[in-house]
Write a structure and sequence with these properties.
The protein is mostly helical and about 180 residues long. The chain is built from 6 helices and no strands. It starts with a helix and ends with a helix. Bound molecules: fe (ii) ion (2 copies).
C-alpha cells in the first residue's frame, strides 16, 4: 500500500470518531443523556491515534518529503496543515478540561464541551478533505517508489515509537466498538 493510501485509510478511521463526537455534542445540546465514557474514548483515540501517531507520520515524514519536493511550507499548504494540527491540539485540551468538569458534576460544562467537540470535528473534517483531495495527490505525483517505500517503513517505526507495538491494532478494535455505539446514538 502507498504511504498516502495508509494515511487516507486512517482518515476514514478518524471520521468514525468525528461522527461520535458530533452526535455526542448534539445530545449535550438537546439535554439528552450522554455517555461520558464514549466521549472519553473519542478523546483517547483523537490524542493517541489521530494526533500522536497519524499527525506524527505527516509532520515527521510526509510533510518534510513534500517540502523537499518543492511544496511550499511557510505561507503554503504544508504550513497550513501544520497550523491546523496545532489548532486541533488546543481543542483537544479544551475537550479534556470540560469533560473533566462535567464528569465532576459541573452541568455548566455541557455547553462549552459541545462547542469544543463540534469545533474539533469541523476542523478535522475540512483538514482531511484538503489532505485527501489536494496534498496527497501532490505527494503521490511527487514521490518515487523508493521514497514511498521509505515512508511506509518510517510509518511502522512511528507506530512502535509513539504508541508502542500492537497498540495501533488495539485502536482499530476500539474503533469497531465505537462504530457500533455511534449507530445507537
Ligand atoms: Fe494532517
Ligand atoms: Fe491526515
Amino acid at each position: 500500500m502507498k504511504s498516502t493510501d495508509i494515511l487516507s485509510n486512517e482518515h476514514r478511521a478518524i471520521e468514525i470518531v468525528l461522527d461520535a463526537m458530533e452526535k455526542s455534542a448534539k445530545r449535550l445540546e438537546s439535554g439528552d443523556e450522554v455517555d461520558l465514557a464514549t466521549i472519553d474514548d473519542c478523546l483517547d483515540f483523537a490524542i493517541g491515534f489521530a494526533d500522536k501517531c497519524h499527525h506524527a507520520k505527516e509532520e515527521e515524514l510526509l510533510f518534510p518529503k513534500l517540502v523537499e519536493a518543492g511544496v511550499k511550507r511557510d505561507g503554503g499548504p504544508v504550513g497550513a496543515m501544520l497550523h491546523e494540527h496545532e489548532e486541533g491540539r488546543s481543542l483537544l485540551k479544551s475537550i479534556r478540561k470540560h469533560l473533566d468538569e462535567l464528569s465532576a458534576g459541573d452541568e455548566e460544562a455541557k455547553e462549552p464541551l459541545a462547542e469544543a467537540l463540534k469545533c474539533y470535528a469541523n476542523l478535522l473534517r475540512s483538514h482531511i478533505i484538503k489532505e485527501d483531495r489536494v496534498l496527497f495527490e501532490v505527494a503521490a505525483a511527487a514521490l518515487s517508489d523508493e521514497e514511498d517505500e521509505e515512508l511506509v517503513k518510517g510509518f511502522d517505526d512511528i507506530e512502535e515509537r509513539k504508541i508502542g507495538p500492537g497498540v495501533h491494532e488495539e485502536y482499530h478494535r476500539m474503533l469497531d466498538d465505537l462504530a457500533e455505539r455511534v449507530k445507537m446514538m
